[in-house]
Design goal:
With 332 residues, this protein is α+β, with helices and mostly antiparallel strands. The protein has two domains: 15-59 and 66-197, no CATH class; 228-330, no CATH class. Helices cover 36% and strands 23% of the residues. It has nine helices and twelve strands. The strands form three sheets. It has a seven-stranded mixed β-sheet with strand order 2-1-8-9-10-11-12, with helices on both faces. Strands 3-6-7 form a three-stranded antiparallel β-sheet, with no helix packed on it.
């Protein structure tokens, strides 16, 4: 089949999904609140057992067999009750791996950290590739015709055939089959990768501890913002440092405007940001947390500065960087 999912004898496919039904109409549905390790079981993958075999790998050549030097086989025991082990791929002698349950635990940590809205978990290519896609809430981007929603998420992809590293990256491609698995990998630049070496499992453990520690520190930082008073004037100062006013030049002056005044586009951005801060203050109180929520909300959804200056308007042209800059400005 084009999707290359494993289909069990009882008609199930090796995928569990929340939210929208995939194009192939396959997969077991789970509630978005279901922990990922449980979703792994619903997908029929919790019984997988991967091993790196020390047995020699042999190939057939001209009616005979030849041993492949230095090659080892990754085998798995299918979770559908079939007792025999099958081949997932051929790898080197120092190939490191983690079991699917470990990947699910890691994904659950990321799901809680990023507060994702749903997920898809599954396996393709006869269990040689596992994937987990964490869906983030649709994000709105300001366009000339209004607010345009688009999907974004976090992809976690691993292969047991030696074809790639464990990869964690941002992706707007929801992985539901082998084609979307490959599409999510295409052109990835800012990704966290771990090669399948002998220290593979240790590196995954270290990343999990780092994320947990950072999450705890971030929660403590936000609690400090809640305890710090702030005014609209503080928000205004922060915004001006984040996006310095672009002053009109002599060639840009129109009727009713003077040289040195902020551009109309910058003023609209400023008013939008301050409006968001006021709404947050009405809910959260007049503190720095409300300023943080309002300005980051503007940076993510309501940028009034668009066009050829969009990338230059915010630090690094990146929402993630601008959010960090806002946090830095409010915690000095």
């Amino acid at each position: 089949m084009g999707h290359e999912l494993y289909e069990f004898a009882d008609g199930r496919a090796s995928i569990a999904v929340t939210g929208e039904t995939p194009w192939h109409r396959l997969g077991q549905r789970v509630d978005a609140s279901t922990p990922i390790p449980d979703g792994l079981g619903v997908a029929g993958l919790s019984g997988l057992d991967y091993r790196v075999s020390d047995d020699p790998v042999m190939v057939s050549v001209d009616g005979g067999t030849v041993t492949v030097p230095g090659a080892h086989a990754v085998t798995y025991r299918s979770p559908d009750g079939v007792g025999r082990r099958a081949l997932a791929g051929t790898v080197g002698p120092n190939f490191g791996l983690v079991q699917p349950e470990r990947m699910a635990d890691f994904g659950e940590l990321l799901r809680q950290y990023f507060e994702t809205s749903g997920y898809t978990v599954g396996a393709v290519r006869n269990f040689s590739r596992l994937f987990l896609y964490l869906e983030r809430p649709n994000r709105g981007i300001a366009t000339p015709s209004g607010i345009d929603d688009y999907r974004s998420g976090i992809a976690i992809m691993d292969a047991y055939d030696g074809s790639q590293s464990l990869t964690v990256c941002a992706s707007d491609t929801r992985i539901v089959c082998n084609n979307t698995f490959s599409l999510a990998m295409r052109g990835v630049q800012n990704a966290w990768r771990v090669r399948h070496t002998s220290g593979f499992a240790t590196q995954v453990d270290n990343l999990e501890r780092t994320l947990t520690r950072y999450h705890e520190q971030f929660d403590s930082l936000l609690a400090g913002l809640c305890d710090a008073d702030a005014s609209i004037g503080d928000a205004d100062e922060c915004f001006r440092r984040l996006v310095p006013p672009r002053l009109l030049t002599r060639d840009e002056v129109s009727t009713g405007r003077r040289v040195g005044e902020p551009s109309g586009r910058w003023e609209r951005a400023h008013e939008d940001a301050m409006s968001r801060v006021r709404r947050e203050m009405a809910t959260c109180g007049r503190n720095r947390y409300a300023v943080f929520q309002g300005l980051t909300g503007w940076a993510e959804h309501g940028r009034a500065i668009r066009g050829d200056r969009a990338e230059a308007a915010l630090p690094g042209g990146s929402t993630q960087r601008s959010n960090q800059t806002i946090l830095d400005l409010l915690t000095v």
